[in-house]
Design goal:
Protein name: Aromatic ring-hydroxylating dioxygenase subunit alpha
Family: Belongs to the bacterial ring-hydroxylating dioxygenase alpha subunit family.
Bound molecules: FE2/S2 (inorganic) cluster, fe (ii) ion
GO molecular function, one term: 2 iron, 2 sulfur cluster binding
Pfam families: Rieske, Ring_hydroxyl_A
Cofactor: [2Fe-2S] cluster
Length: 454
């Protein structure tokens, strides 16, 4: 199947809200995704707090490609394919660390932290014809850029600059990254686990799906209760939980350029019922300062879901930031980081980590609800007949609007699928189009059509 022969508009019809079930399991589409999405989009690599000193490195992935992110002697950051130029061995094994060189465990070729091949064992005897070491450095990721502490990489020199690529999702992301003057840091290590589902299920859910929380998380919400100011107390017998979707006065979903976000407007900084008491108290204590920096809407935004296309998701308040590394069409490797304000005390940071682990760690009570759905869908899609159906993604179709209260971008009511439609539109456009200019033009036309009633 050549990419030119695929009818992407038939796979994704954002105007009627239909998506072909086959996009979650087709191995040929997956190969195209690796090339045309993971090979061309800005992907989250690491947080600057993970590699503060020269020689500090962090190992991650771009799609399925292993990547070393390393702090240079001059303080800049570079990223390299973690693949020995000799016979393809991984040259760096540890999750992270500090080093002066990366030495391949197979035959001992050694690379500097700038990627240059600096040493080849028995060079003169093994390569009497000469070896052009200058040309055999590690492959460098074409572009590396930072946004408020987050480091991103991109293989595509023609892609828009990082901030242009982010567009309005940066405004929503600032609600986590820019709350206090010190910015953020990653607390503790990275939780990594595997879920047997296509990467687009979790990415889409974090972009667009608050709807599932009413039902999938009903039991967890009931146990926790949502009485304002008592988030850390379980409900007593006979008490009824009042979840945030019942108590919030308004809510919105944002969806544009493939990215998505959703949250409720609350009256006070107590909306998130599953965080520790210390975290709730910290939100209350810092509220005036954060409001002065970010305004009321984002300062109060303590329960919200988000995805920056394609695979970086985060939840406000719960302080989980994660990447959905694809592992074939039927599996995803989750890397979950706990992100918190650098200016918080050590006790509060530990409380953030506990809260993130309890709710959204690999055994987190909310994480389990979510993964169960995705795994079962993926199993259903093994069926030939199941794979030939269309999924319904039409919630809130035609109700998109631009707000006049300073909240940017194309928005809808929170219980809608505006962000999902935009995500699949961007997915299809990237697979269909050879150039970023074409992709951006298609996005512009699509969003104009979506908004023409406004
Ligand atoms: S594969 Fe790395 S030195 Fe041979
Ligand atoms: Fe969920």
């Amino acid at each position: 199947m050549s990419q030119k022969s695929i009818d992407f508009d038939a796979l994704v019809d954002a105007h009627t809200g239909r998506v072909a079930a086959s996009i979650y399991s087709d191995p040929e589409l997956y190969e195209l995704e690796l090339e045309r999405i993971f090979g061309r989009c800005w992907l989250f690599l690491a947080h600057v707090s993970q590699i503060p000193k020269a020689g500090d490195y962090f190992n991650t992935y771009m799609g399925e490609d292993p990547i070393i992110v390393v702090r240079q002697k001059d303080g800049s950051i570079k990223a390299f394919l973690n693949q020995c130029r000799h016979r393809s061995m991984r040259v760096s094994y540890a999750d992270c660390g500090n080093t002066r060189s990366f030495t391949c465990p197979y035959h001992g070729w050694s690379y500097g932290t700038d990627g240059a091949l600096v040493d080849v064992p028995l060079e003169a005897r093994a390569y009497p014809q000469g070896l052009c070491k200058q040309k055999l450095g590690l492959q460098e990721v074409t572009r590396v850029a930072e946004y408020k502490g987050l480091i991103f990489g991109n293989w595509d020199a023609s892609a828009p600059d990082l901030e242009a690529y982010m567009g309005d999702i940066a405004w929503y992301l600032d609600g986590v990254l820019d709350r206090r003057p010190g910015g953020t840091e990653i607390i503790g290590g990275v939780h990594k686990w595997v879920i047997d589902c296509n990467w687009k299920f979790p990415a889409e859910q974090f972009a667009s799906d608050q709807y599932h929380a009413l039902y999938s998380h009903a039991s967890a919400v009931q146990v926790l209760g949502a009485k304002e100011g008592e988030g850390d107390k379980a409900l007593g017998a006979g008490q009824t939980a009042r979840p945030v979707w019942e108590t919030a006065k308004d809510a919105l979903q944002y969806g544009q350029a493939g990215h998505g976000s959703g949250f409720f407007f609350t009256e006070g900084p107590d909306a998130n019922v599953w965080v520790d008491g210390e975290v709730s108290q910290y939100f209350r204590d810092t509220y005036p300062e954060v409001e002065a920096r970010l305004g009321k809407v984002r300062a109060l935004r303590l329960a919200g879901h988000n995805n920056m296309f394609p695979t970086m998701s985060w939840l406000n308040g719960t302080a989980t930031l994660r990447v959905w590394h694809p592992r074939g069409p039927n599996q995803v490797e989750v890397w979950a980081f706990c992100i918190a304000d650098k200016d918080a005390s050590d006790e509060v940071k530990q409380a953030f980590e506990r809260s993130a682990t309890r709710a959204f760690g690999p055994a987190g009570f909310l994480e389990q609800d979510d993964s169960e759905n995705w795994v079962e869908i993926q199993k259903v899609l093994r069926g030939k007949r199941a794979r030939s159906t269309k999924l319904i993604v039409e919630m809130g179709l035609g109700n998109e609007k631009r707000r006049d209260d300073g909240i940017p971008g194309m928005t809808n009511y929170i219980f809608s699928e505006t962000a999902a439609r935009g995500m699949y539109r961007r997915w299809a456009d990237l697979l269909a189009c050879d150039s970023w200019d074409e992709v951006l033009e298609r996005t512009r036309v699509y969003e104009q059509e979506v908004m023409k009633h406004d």
